[in-house]
């Protein structure tokens, strides 16, 4: 008898102290607190779920409109509406733990002190991985403010690192003039991995002539979706030449071929964002598609492919 | 066909595919599409919506469910942009990639009811009228359009059409008729869907006559399942102003709770 059972390729990767079953991670702000997707995916099959950005106090977010579709993507200006760290620990953390979901908590502050306090609260509550949001373009103070200047970034990350000894990831924006300096300083300050890119600053305008005058309405915010993929690939390729820590790549990934592109330019894992909105089942499908591609190409483990990719190390 | 059935039996990792039974114009730019999808038809409640994937677009387009018949369901839509243009060109026998039903529907009560539907907002109240009819709950339906539409699924009795061009029995706008209808039919509950201005007037009229009301709202969102926070609005709950998501906590809200 011919043995037709083929062993599934091993998709596991390591990000800091975190062992992930798969490189597919859901991007912050696109997966809620995970249980919303229970109907569409096996949550335990996903590498990790990154929570909506969480702040010290609950936030109501920005006024409407908050979403606008543009060619090849969308713009959002949600403004970090979230239930605050206390609310998260009380209402969402038990669900994630009970369902045995691997998760990373995305935190956002308006001062270095706030980031440190958030990290400390996470450490006290047994949270084993955090992603520092230093890149949200939609809040008046904080986030991107700390992710633009290399010295500020170094100070912030070092302070957090002193208070959080588990897996620490920093999420960077492409809206900077010095990507490699920022990445290098993040590494020096002791992060375990860099995730990039956050949404790209953008604006959608609707202009009309009324009584010979030009009037317009607009949505200003961060752009995501397939149209930003080339920006993301370029950014990741650039920083991957300068640091040795793992990079979690994201920006417009919508199929398994995209995942290979991100790995090729230096990513160890990837995040899926906007695609989750369109295809709530996509993370499940991507995992299966990725397994199939590896299988068809005789690759039995993803880590091997990553090791052979274009990285300095 | 077998493959499609298998796909529809399990949503994990797969979309639902619905076969187009018919897709016809009701008036210039208003269409009614009938789709076959057992999974959605069996679960759907009046006030809930489905999200349709439109070729070439990033985000799905949400539509209220207008009616359910066995394994089929209907959607009424107006061509507003690229998404609805795409759907209007879909032919019988084609398949659409759909997720849903999403959201919380109307709370059906056994009270004498007034249904208010304006424009494509007729969809969820028409579906509700079917449920009321089935349960022998008395109702009156007030439907408003720019010009008269021939929707065969609208109830034969107790249904009144108001049109701006006067091509139906009643000429004008829904707002002009609300007080008169309430005084004549003495509803104890009002359900409404349509442009925000119609909903505002309806809630005001309901308050004036001290009648409970429920309204189905709409805002742009990306996901439909409560994660993107795009459709967050402010409502009053227990005398407190709180954020609620139209897609997940709504789209139906107590009329009095909505902060316009």
Molecular structure report:
- The complex is a heterodimer of chains A (313) and B (260).
- Chain A is an alpha/beta fold.
- Chain A has one domain (13-64, 80-200, 225-307): Aldolase class I (TIM Barrel).
- Chain A contains nine helices and 14 strands.
- In chain A, 53% of the residues are buried.
- The model of chain A has no long low-confidence stretch (mean pLDDT 94).
- By secondary structure, chain B is an alpha/beta fold.
- Chain B has three domains: 2-102, Translation factors (Elongation Factor Tu (Ef-tu), domain 3), CATH 2.40.30; 106-215, 3-Layer(aba) Sandwich (Rossmann fold), CATH 3.40.50.80; 217-260, Dihydroorotate dehydrogenase B (pyrk subunit), domain 3 (Ribbon).
- Chain B is 23% helix and 35% strand.
- In chain B, the strands form three sheets. In chain B, strands 10-9-8-7-11-12-15 form a seven-stranded mixed sheet, sandwiched between helices. A six-stranded antiparallel beta barrel of chain B has the order 1-2-5-4-3-6. A two-stranded antiparallel ribbon of chain B has the order 13-14.
- The longest helix of chain B is centred in the middle third of the chain and has 13 residues, at 122-134.
- In chain B, 47% of the residues are buried.
- Classes of the chains: A alpha/beta (313), B alpha/beta (260).
- The interface between A and B is medium-sized, with 37 and 28 residues.
The gist of it:
With 313 residues, chain A is an alpha/beta fold. Chain A has helices at 84-98, 112-124, 150-163, 179-188, 229-240, 256-264, 274-278, 282-296, 302-307; strands spanning 13-15, 18-20, 24-26, 48-50, 67-70, 73-76, 103-107, 129-133, 167-172, 193-196, 200-210, 213-224, 247-250, 269-272. The mean pLDDT of chain A is 94.
